[in-house]
Design a protein that fits this description.
- Strand 10 (about 185-190) and strand 11 (about 195) form a beta hairpin.
- It is elongated and about 115 Å long.
- It is about 65% helix and about 15% strand.
- The protein has helices at about 1-30, 55, 70-85, 115-120, 170-180, 215-230, 245-300, 305-335, 340-370, 375-410, 430-455, 465-470, 485-500, 525-535, 550-580, 585-605, 615-645, 650-680, 685-745; strands at about 35, 45, 60-65, 95-100, 100-110, 125-130, 135-140, 140-150, 160-165, 185-190, 195, 210-215, 235-245, 460-465, 470-475, 505, 515-520, 545-550, 610.
- Helix 10 (about 375-410) runs parallel beside helix 17.
- The chain is an alpha+beta fold.
- The chain starts with a helix and ends with a helix.
């Protein structure tokens, strides 16, 4: 006994040391992630977790080449040009190609976003100057520029040059210029920066020239790229843009962190009250989980966005699920008469399959979300997937270690763990027809809502700019503006800028924020609107944000949303089919998922929630969450088929399985709901827009798992049993008739 206490004490001290170390690094990561604004008003970070534009503030722009099929070289050159330009705004700026004709530009921490939008898309000016600083050639006179390497025959060293080829017109110009400037310098300037200033050795008439003096091939390639860019006729057009103020981002971080801390505290208290010593073990494991999550986000350089924060907080709620499954099993084993030590061992073993299957199916949803989603949605998928993996690790290893440590310290009495006696099975299947009708009514109500929306607002849903196109301006006023004042005072100011009567306004409940939706505005119109709002209402310009997206992107995003849901569903069906070796389990689960998606879609239609890119993340998260609860019930059904034997009726097996997992379903859903609810109460508007459908999805997912999945599997199974019985009887009758015929023939 003393030996066990010694082991327990050492284990507890080790756990606390590990928690302290990782907790310190997690806190340090959090502190480094804070935004700092210098005396010039530029916002930046000192390290830590890489923040997305919606948190750090800044601008994100997607440009598309006007040329239908630009060459890879032209796209690469344009990308390089933009990268060179945006470095002047922020050293953390990123430029990357999207598809064959698009380039994304992300510039965090900038303050004058409208100025950047104006400047970035302008074509660069490449010019050649003589010693009197007269422009003697333009970039359009250059046909091509390539970096070359040649070996010096005397020294054996590599030399680097840029070989130029001029157009026909440029060849004549260059011949005249070089003839008139032998022994003099001709400077090559791009965007007011001198890249080269070579001396003319002789008149060059062949339409080709070279620029020497580069110290590396990379330097030569960069100069060649610069010259090629100046000669390109590749024009860019703004496809979509997001402009976010840094102050709004800091507010989002602060409120989301507070929401996370409060929600996490509530979950820990709930776990300890309901599950006692196992709940304490789970709470310690969850603390380590949070610290590791912060550290890994920084280590993997995951760009954290607002949906990403939602993914983390949601995954904290879901991390409880694995622990609840284990603790429910432990209680059951103690109720069967086993010792606490044996119950802990058996509980973890029996819970393993449900935990693995449930989390793998959720990971499938996250993977599809990352694959098919856009930048911020990918960030959400990354944090969700990371959270799922960490939750499995902490539940299966850290919680188990902590629980054994506490047991060795002397917490060995059954009262510290709880006892769950076998309960009489509730007749869930008896209400299946009522549940089927309720679900059908909710889905049909959604269809009716879509029809009404089509007639009233022109679309089945309240599409956000992601899906519809246009410009949305979010303004935080200094006072709470009533709908009447918005209509009578704000709208006329907006329409004087847009010259359009098609202005929609939306007041964000509980805040001074108003969202103004208009037709797509130009950069000049956006700036004029910002100035008008500041002048007329005295609002802080840093609290005015705008975003726009083209209709072309809208069509792609809608298609991607449908594809992502379909692909995730197919992969889940295949996984469940393989794992449970029964297509009826897979079919029931998928039907329940389709039900959940349709009901949440009905909520989007009836409540006129904004449908945008985050709706994809929301729906797939609901799919992943719902399947988790379904897997736990199916795991019990599979187990009870063996335990209860062939004499037990299918109805008894299903009812018993749902009853055994009912408490787990409620507790897990409650903890996840609490996390999202706190996020909804305290979060900024963009977080609330995400949290509200998630809450509806959690309720719907719990309902479908408990009331529908088992019932659908039962209906499919009994139909097959009846069909098999009919076929068996028909076979018997046929065999009997054959025997009688044979007998009468004799």
């Amino acid at each position: 006994m003393k030996s066990n206490k010694g082991k327990g004490l050492i284990g507890l001290l080790g756990l606390l040391v590990v928690l302290g170390i990782f907790g310190f690094f997690g806190y340090d990561t959090l502190q480094k992630s804070k935004l700092v604004t210098d005396e010039n008003g530029v916002t930046s970070q000192n390290g830590g977790i890489k923040l997305g534009l919606d948190l750090a503030g800044g601008v994100s722009i997607t440009y598309q080449a006007k040329e239908e099929n630009p060459s890879a070289e032209d796209m690469s050159d344009t990308q390089y040009k933009l990268q060179q330009r945006v470095q002047n705004y922020s050293s953390e700026a990123e430029v990357y190609q999207e598809g064959g004709n698009r380039i994304n530009v992300d510039i965090p921490g900038v303050t004058d976003a409208n100025k950047i939008l104006e400047e970035l898309g302008k074509p660069g000016s490449l010019q050649f100057y003589d010693e009197n600083w007269n422009v003697v050639l333009e970039g359009t006179d250059v046909a091509s520029a390539k970096a070359v390497i040649y070996k010096d025959q005397q020294t054996g060293n590599n030399n680097y040059e840029v070989a130029l080829t001029f157009t026909d017109e440029g060849t004549k110009k260059f011949a005249d210029v070089t003839a008139a400037n032998v022994g003099k310098k001709i400077a090559i300037v791009y965007d007011n920066v001198m890249y080269s200033n070579p001396t003319v050795q002789q008149a060059i008439t062949g339409g080709q020239a070279s620029i020497s003096g580069m110290t590396s091939y990379e330097e030569a390639e960069n100069l060649a790229s610069t010259i090629r860019i100046g000669s390109l006729s590749l024009e860019l057009e703004e496809l979509r843009s997001n402009v976010v103020g840094a102050k709004l981002g800091q507010e989002a971080i602060t409120t989301s962190l507070k929401a996370g801390a409060i929600g996490f505290g509530i979950v820990c208290v709930f776990m300890i009250v309901v599950y006692l010593i196992p709940g304490l073990a789970a709470s310690l494991a969850l603390c380590l989980y949070v610290a590791l999550m912060l550290i890994l986000l920084a280590a993997f350089e995951v760009t954290l966005t607002l949906p990403g924060i939602a993914g983390i907080i949601l995954s904290i709620g879901m991390a409880v699920d694995a622990n609840v499954i284990i603790f429910t099993r432990i209680k059951e084993e103690i109720g069967l008469g086993k010792t606490v030590h044996s119950a802990i061992k058996t509980g973890f073993a029996k819970a393993l399959s449900a935990i693995v299957d449930g989390n793998v199916t959720t990971l499938i949803a996250a993977a599809v979300l990352y694959w098919r989603g856009s930048g911020t949605v990918k960030g959400f998928a990354t944090t969700l997937a990371l959270g799922i993996v960490l939750s499995m690790f902490t539940a299966l290893f850290v919680t188990k270690f902590t629980l054994n440590t506490l047991y060795n310290l002397g917490f060995q009495d059954q009262k510290f763990y709880g006892i769950r006696k076998e309960k009489k099975a509730l007749n869930f299947l008896g209400k299946r027809n009522i549940c089927f009708i309720i679900s059908a009514v909710m889905i049909l109500a959604g269809v009716a809502g879509m029809v009404m929306n089509k007639s009233s607002i022109g679309n089945a849903f309240n599409y956000s700019l992601d899906f519809q196109g246009g410009t949305s301006t979010s303004v935080t006023f200094n006072e709470d503006m009533s709908l009447e004042r918005i209509s009578s005072e704000v709208v006329p100011v907006v329409e004087s800028i847009t010259n359009s009567a098609d202005t929609q306004t939306q007041k964000v409940a509980g805040t001074n924020e108003v969202i103004i939706k208009t037709r797509t505005l130009s950069v000049e119109e956006r700036q004029a609107l910002d100035e008008a709002l500041v002048e007329n209402f005295g609002v802080d310009e840093s609290k005015i944000t705008a975003e726009s997206i083209s209709g072309a992107v809208s069509a792609e995003m809608k298609r991607d949303a449908v594809m992502a849901t379909a692909i995730a569903t197919v992969f889940m069906l295949l996984y469940i089919w393989v794992r449970f070796k029964d297509i009826r389990f897979a079919a029931s689960a998928v039907l329940a998922l389709v039900h959940d998606v349709l009901v949440v879609v009905a909520c989007y239609a009836l409540a006129k929630w904004s449908v945008g890119s985050t709706a994809i993340a929301c729906l797939l998260t609901i799919v992943g969450y719902s399947i988790n609860a379904t897997i736990v019930i199916f795991d019990r059904i599979r187990e009870n088929i063996k335990l209860m034997g062939p004499k037990a009726s299918t109805a008894d097996i299903v009812n018993t399985s749902i009853t055994q997992t009912f408490t787990r379903s409620i507790n897990t859903s409650l903890t996840t709901f609490v996390m999202v609810f706190v996020l909804f109460i305290m979060g900024v508007s963009s977080i609330r827009e995400f949290a509200l459908p998630l809450m509806a999805g959690i309720i719907c997912g719990t309902y479908s798992s408990v009331c529908l999945t088992g019932a659908m599997w039962y209906v499919m199974t009994t139909k097959k049993q009846k069909k098999d019985a009919v076929e068996k009887q028909a076979k018997k009758d046929a065999e009997k008739a054959a025997k009688e015929a044979k007998k009468s023939g004799k």
